[in-house]
Amino acid sequence: QLWQAYAALEKSKVKGASGKRILTDLVSLVRFATHQDNELVPFPERVTANFNAWLGDQERGGLPAPRPGTWFVYAIECSNGSRYIGQTSDLPRRFEEHKAGTGASWTRRHPPVRVIHWEEYASEHEAVEREKYLKTGFGRKWLKREFAAGRTRQAGKKFTDEQRQWLSMIRDHIAANMGVESDDFEYAPFSQAGGLGKAYRLFPDGLQTIIESLNMALVA
User: Are residues 142 and 166 in the same domain?
Assistant: First the structure.
């Protein structure tokens, strides 16, 4: 009834019908009531829009676009073979600053070649702590090992049709449940497509990274 009430009061700002998605619609209602969103949009529609943007970021070969409440920890390969590690809320802009020589004294002396890895976090504090770790000896060894194994998160991923099918199922699950975990893959509809084992085979280089990324990007 609350959704219909908003529709009656501010029809121009309310999109779609809410149906019976009580919990997910509540998220949209709270975001609208607290002025986080300018329009009252059904949660599944927001998830779909965010999914399309996420997929575009993954496959265009570009860096992830900035999103409210999201921070990125990144590693840049420099011209002398070294790696610069930092954190930012806008990775494309920050990389351009490094290329222009205004990002950091290190990348001014050793021009950046490419971003070889990035991670997403829900707060600046988490990003800063992860940045500190990656700058330690243990963190740099981890990054070197993951990069050598091809497991770092780089731009320009191309998904197969079967991977896209799974990504769409994950999208729909998030739209209905506000999130997804690997344990969910043991139940329908994932179990009918091979379950958790199949998911690991389809995404051998980082299933958990994809799950975390989709949870953060689609619910934003």
Answer: no
